[in-house]
Amino acid sequence: MAFIYRYQIQNKEVRKRTNLKEYEDIVIESIKKYYENRIKDCRVERNFFEYRLIYKASNDELRKVSKMILKKCPILKSEIITNNSRINGVKYFERIRQKYYAFVERDEDEKPSKFHLIDYDDFNEIDSFSEVAKKRFNEYCLRHQKKITNENIDIFSKALAIPFYMDVFTINLNNSYFFEQDIGENNLVLIEGYQREYNTGYQREKENIQKIISYLDVENLMESGETYDDENLMDGFNISKCLKIIDGEEIKKVDKAITIEFPEAGSVKNFDNKNYKNIDFSVHNVGQALATSLSEIGKPPFLFFDFGVSEGRNAFNRPTIRDIDLSEKPSIVISHVHRDHWYGLTIFTESFYCDWYIPHQYKEPLFLKRCAEILANGGSVSYIDSPIMSAFGTIFKGSKLSNYDPTRAAKQKHENGLGMKLKLFSEKVNSDVNVLIPGDQNFDYIPRSYLSDIDVLVASHHGGKYSWSTRQDVFLDIPYNYNNGQIIYSYGFNNTHSHPSSILDYEERDWVRRHDTIKDSTFKLKQDY
Fold it and tell me: Which domains can be identified in the chain, with CATH numbers?
């Protein structure tokens, strides 16, 4: 993750006849000396130089670096000044407005809600970028040899180098960002724009700037107590225009460069050989997100099903979270790849060493980057494509067709994700208790065999939309509460989605006894049911 600053000589004639490569050592030395540990990387090409920072730079800083470079390059400075009519206050270098591939993330109504941006020039010259990425990744592997389980680092780096090294950041879309050109159902567009800097009051602003971690050293990060939050990148971007819709061979080229091949999981580590009567189930208070866990009595969790925290525009309602314990290296299963279900990775960095299990779904570049970082730090990532069963429950995949409309195939992340049903034991009622965790899964895409005899229901989608259908009796998709069971709503204060918005529908199906994480804190089966 980095802020990219790319500059060229402003005067076109000087630019044409000047090869900046001749000044490469001086340019890189100047940049590194000025920014020191804020530098992620820098490079010099014939027509431009570029550096990537883990902090935003102020306009004043950008000017000072340009002057420093010219001071150490008197020949270049002379050439630039001689060919400019204005000497005092002349702009020797100009920042290049960049092009970005913008991967579209859509909300529950399939409207564009976020763009995940990667630099177009990196992927326009894919062979060159691949070599840079591989070199940086190999440097990382050598520093952390003990963590790399693959014997052949060269092969390992080819598979992970680009997604590991690429810079990705996310912007929220609002009305000011929509274009006259309708992007329709397309998932990839080319845009032109730039990251915003601070224009005034930088010293005051500097005190409030969060550090953007380069994601190259998890071990040092954990020792420093810092986290991986990306939120300060949100909305820090001006879109100039949408250049074109990307399709065909160009999509294949980019997808191939960032895609990682994951193995199929035949089982989930830790999801077996347990006495179900000794297992506690928790729904953690993580704000506008979902994180649930299984643990043996008196022990840390051995499995998480979803691992989210509030993020993006809902980051403000993230509570202080004190009950996430990864000391036993639990397995982490993700119901679907929306950030509010996996973003705990950015806060609880020990999870980079865990085994992760995900559904077969379209994955935005940011998630692929995180997967590469998990693999590079000794964790694993596997697909779940068929039910995983144990004595106390099943992790299942969504149905291919709707229970309500057998002609409608699953087509989005709330329809083809994972769910989990458990059989546990409650001392309070002295009987077995069936628990259903659908994630954000629409109920009519959950196999019917998992929709009956439920005592504890974690409301789908934080108590929000639970079906694609708008028919009048849509609430019938919700499983009926025959056993005076309890429903759990996991959501954050004043969230931007108005969740939970379907409480009346759940009550129509007799889910009246409820636990709200925002009011009642973390739900624990052994004490709260």
Answer: 3-95 (3.30.1360), 98-196+236-258 (no CATH), 276-528 (3.60.15.10)
